[in-house]
Amino acid sequence: MGTKSTMADAKVIAVAASVLSALGITDYNLKVGNIGVYRDLLQAEGFDFDKQCAIIGSINRVIDAKEKLEAIGNKKEIAEADKEFLTTKMSEIYKLQNEIKYSGIYEIMPIPAKSLNEEKIRALLKQVPKSLEETMKAVLSKKYSLRPEFIELVFNIADIKGRRKDVETKARDILKGTAAEKALDELFSVVDWLETYGVKNYNLVLGVARGLDFYTGTVFEFDLPILDAQKQVCGGGRYDKLVEEFGGPSTPATGFAFGFDRLTEALDRLGKSYTEDKAAFLIACVDEKNRKRSIEICQKLRESGIRCEEDLNFSDFKEQTEYAKKLGIKYVIALGEREIKSGKVTVTDIIKKKSKEIDLKEIRGNFSF
Question: How many domains does the chain have?
Answer without folding.
Answer: 3
